Amino acid sequence: TRDAVLHRQHSRESAARTYARTFPIVPVRADGMTVEGADGRRYLDCLSGAGTLALGHNHPVVLDALRRTLDSGAPLHVLDLATAEKDDYTGALFENLPRDFAESAKVHFCGPAGTDAVEAALKLTQTATGRRGVLAFTGAYHGMTAGALAATGNVAVKQPLPTGGEVTRLPYPYAYRCPFGVGGERGAELSAAYVERLLDDPSGGVLPPAAMILEAVQGEGGVIPAPDGWLREMRRITAERGIPLIVDEVQTGAGRTGAMWAVEHSGIVPDVMVLSKAIGGSLPMAVVVYHEDYDGWQPGAHTGTFRGNTLAMAAGAATLRHIAAAGLAERAAVVGARMTERLTALRGELPVIGDVRGRGLMIGVELVDPSGTPDTCGAHPAAPELAARVRAGCLARGLIVELGGRHDAVLRLLPPLTITDEQAEAVLDRLADAIAEASA
Ligand code: PMP
Predict the structure, then answer these.
(1) Same domain as 405, residue 317
(2) Residue 307 Cα distances to 130, 311, 312, 388, 416, angstroms
(3) Span 265-281, average pLDDT
(4) Residue 221 Cβ contacting ligand 1 at under 6 Å
(5) Which of 108, 54, 84 is nearest to 310 (CA)?
(6) Ligand 1 in contact with 317 (CB < 6 A)?
(7) Does 254 share its domain with 344?
(8) Within this chain, do residues 347 and 313 fall inside the same structural domain, yes or no?
(9) Domain check: are 34 and 97 in the same one?
(10) Per-residue model confidence as pLDDT tens digits over 48-57
(11) What's the chain's average pLDDT?
(12) Which of 302, 325, 348 is the last residue of a domain?
């Protein structure tokens, strides 16, 4: 059946399928971190629905919430009407938002995807400021709809659309391959100084923007954590110039980075937060949460048919409360640090590992060609073909790992926050084996 299903989908589905090509699996069952294919093979899942499955597949807390809601007779779709489920979800969300942000925050339920919430955030700040332009960063990923795509950096997915919006691209503090040719903290300082100078340069060509949008840890861009000091600089620079700061926590949110929200590491308080993926507890959900001062929309100014599905709210509320009650963000910090440490040690043995970085259970391993000429930061050329071979080697060993980054040379580990110590060891054993084999 596996081959028949794959063949039918191949002939009927769009050529833009990505994961389906890389991972020729027809999942029939999944539990926690394990996915079982139609051919009976089992895999450890380090992709987790692109970071969506904070509690792994089919967690009992999620299944119970879904069963209870289904059995209650509650309507599953009610546009944006108030329901007990929405009330409960909003409660769970606000209980878990950073306290000083939640105090004066409002939530808007968006369409089901992260990109819908990004669109809403851009439009909201454009409405509030009466301005149009957006400041976004190199390596950024914000989604595939016109506004979010304009803010996204990756040229391969932007072409050939002349994307909407006027976006000024700023240098993200990518320590390993700093755009200013200096690595580490100094590179981040230079990037912050550049942003400030550009905004203040009367001939810099940047009109006062509607917003700055950033990820505290870039995900698709190659798992790049911004230093806390740099994030505080972005907060200062935007605050001093009256520019709303949108933090896109679609991938970093809900415990992933070792805190409930990635902004909590640096302590910055954004004006707008964009949330999706894990906040729906495996079901589609996206919201934009913002300071009440930005609440400039008239009724009906931003609508849509699917805005907060009852089942997603039930699963999402149960997930957020379970992450908090079980201390899963703290656990992500501990397990993530241990995994990162072991990978860093492995770097000594395998020179194709150029960089190991991340925060919590959002870990990136950048693969390089150690025989190539290093750049001024000391980084060797990226090795995308090797990375693709490692990904295939992982799959052959029963491990699902996706790539990301500028050159598709970064292995991205996004295991569920519920990963056990044994599973973490198994992931690293298989990964180490696959890297050693592919680079031999
Ligand atoms: N923002 C970030 C930071 C993301 O990682 C993603 C998805 N990977 C999105 C936005 C877009 O979300 P979606 O794919 O649900 O539209």
Answers:
(1) no
(2) 25, 12, 10, 37, 26
(3) 98
(4) no
(5) 84
(6) no
(7) no
(8) no
(9) no
(10) 999 999 999 9
(11) 96
(12) 325
pLDDT at 178 over 90: no
Q: What pLDDT, on the 0 to 100 scale, is given for residue 21?
A: 87
Band of residue 433 on the pLDDT scale cut at 50, 70, 90: very high
pLDDT of 214 strictly over 80: yes
CB-based contact 124:131 (threshold 8 Å) = no
* Mean pLDDT of all residues in 388-404: 98
250, 285, 362: which to mutate for ligand 1, most atoms within 8 A of CB? 250
* Residue 142 CB less than 6 A away from ligand 1: yes
Q: What's the residue count for the chain?
A: 440
Domain end marker among 325, 356, 374 = 325
- Pocket lining: 141 vs ligand 1, CB cutoff 6 Å: yes
Using a 6 Å cutoff on CB, does residue 109 contact ligand 1?
A: no
Q: What is the dihedral angle through the alpha carbons of 245, 249, 252, 257, rounded to the nearest 10 degrees? A: 50
Same-domain check for residues 113 and 216: yes
Structural domains in the chain (count): 2
In the block, residue with structure tokens 């339920």: 109
440 CA from centroid of ligand 1 (Å): 35
Percent of the chain exceeding pLDDT 90 equals 92
pLDDT(18) > 90: no
Evaluate: CB of 431 within 6 angstroms of ligand 1.
no
Q: How many CB atoms lie within 10 A of CB 162?
A: 8
* Tokens encoding 118: 């990004």
CA of 224 to the centre of ligand 1 (A): 15
Testing ligand 1's pocket by substitution, the residue of 52, 248, 276, 283 carrying the most ligand atoms inside 8 A of its CB is 276
Spatial distance between the Cα atoms of 438 and 411, rounded to a whole number of angstroms: 13
Burial of 298 (0-12, 13-18, 19+ CB in 10 A): exposed
Query: What pLDDT score does 162 carry?
Result: 59
Q: Is the beta carbon of 215 within 6 A of some atom in ligand 1? A: yes
What pLDDT is attached to residue 319?
A: 98
Tell which atom from ligand 1 comes closest to the C-alpha of 215: 3
Q: Domain residues for 80?
A: 62-325
Same domain, 90 and 12: no
Query: Residues near 321 by Cβ (< 8 Å), separated by ≥ 6?
Result: 92, 95, 96
Q: Quote the ligand 1 centre to 336 CA distance (angstroms).
A: 22
Pocket test for ligand 1, best of 53, 115, 213 (most atoms within 8 A of CB): 115
* pLDDT(164) > 80: no
Q: Ligand 1 in contact with 118 (CB < 6 A)?
A: yes
Say if residue 136 is in the same domain as residue 230: yes
51-105: pLDDT as tens digits: 999 999 999 999 999 999 999 999 999 999 999 999 999 999 999 999 999 999 9
Average pLDDT over residues 33-42: 97
